[in-house]
Known about the structure:
Blueprint: E1 22-24, E2 27-29, E3 33-35, H1 44-53, E4 57-64, H2 65-70, H3 73-78, E5 89-93, H4 97-109, E6 115-120, H5 125-128, H6 140-154, E7 159-164, E8 166-168, E9 171-172, H7 174-184, E10 188-192, H8 206-215, E11 221-224, H9 230-240, E12 244-247, H10 257-265, H11 282-300, H12 304-315, H13 323-329, H14 335-349
Parallel strand pairs: 3-4, 3-12, 4-5, 5-6, 6-7, 7-10, 10-11, 11-12
Antiparallel strand pairs: 1-2, 8-9
Helix pairs in contact: 1-10, 1-11, 4-6, 6-7, 9-10, 11-12, 11-14
Amino acid sequence: xxxxxxxxxxxxxxxxxxxxxxxxxxxxxxxxxxxxxxxxxxxxxxxxxxxxxxxxxxxxxxxxxxxxxxxxxxxxxxxxxxxxxxxxxxxxxxxxxxxxxxxxxxxxxxxxxxxxxxxxxxxxxxxxxxxxxxxxxxxxxxxxxxxxxxxxxxxxxxxxxxxxxxxxxxxxxxxxxxxxxxxxxxxxxxxxxxxxxxxxxxxxxxxxxxxxxxxxxxxxxxxxxxxxxxxxxxxxxxxxxxxxxxxxxxxxxxxxxxxxxxxxxxxxxxxxxxxxxxxxxxxxxxxxxxxxxxxxxxxxxxxxxxxxxxxxxxxxxxxxxxxxxxxxxxxxxxxxxxxxxxxxxxxxxxxxxxxxxxxxxxxxxxxxxxxxxxxxxxxxxxxxxxxxxxxxxxxxxxxx
Length: 400
């Protein structure tokens, strides 16, 4: 029996034939698990680690449609996939149909992707105050025109849409947005079961996932929010009827969560799952950290190690590393430097040091909220207005 936190004790692995392969257009997704796009995290190196741990669908960082069409250098880099990466899944952000159509057509005509996800859930003020992200479904006709433009340019490449419940409890848009997206031909939906006002605070409202699943019947619905351990995925699917789950913060510093998910679902459709083993010990975590850092440096050059620094806290959450080691890890200058610090930790704490199980449910990264959503002046005056936000709404840096 694996080391499981108290909240999930008693959750049984998937039974044979309980869940089946999810079809997203022509793609078959098994287990029914998707890596959520996360700015500054889900780049090619991190996707490589997650894919090695367990099958599923692994989506890139968000890139802007306009930046892709204009050939912005950073956008182009963020849109790269590893030679053996399959399926190649990318998330696009756009605020008007023309650039979205052009970006999708570029990706498809150059055979650069196997799946396109559209971001209509970003709650960040720099996005919503310009009419983008979670603000766009407040304009259902504009939202539909953007999604339709992507679907029309995609051909046989499946297009999916990810959104939140709405901007706040007074403006819940997810059911209407889901029906619109279904009507214009998307292949699946993903709902982060929080409002934009919540940001990442409180608990995800899984009942909204059930409501969306009941309203949208012809395509798969994935639920997102509070998947900290593999048992949470089973609980969400059993309680809501959704077709799969999207994993975000729960895998930060824990790419092996995808292996645990594959275990509880079973290694093949209909096989029935089994219990997970104990979480990796400190030596195993250190080995993954070292590999992650080297993959980042190979991908991004010497400054890739700076990108890795934020991951050190996430990886070592729940291990008694001490403030000095945490400070040193936040300042690593190279993979060799990292391995030297990790070697010292292993000597001090022991290679077999285990994790505090309670730490598995402590959120990594974002915990902010609630916070009032900032919208453009007059954004709520006419929901039927199809006028896109100003061009600067899409002049955001890809990957964040």
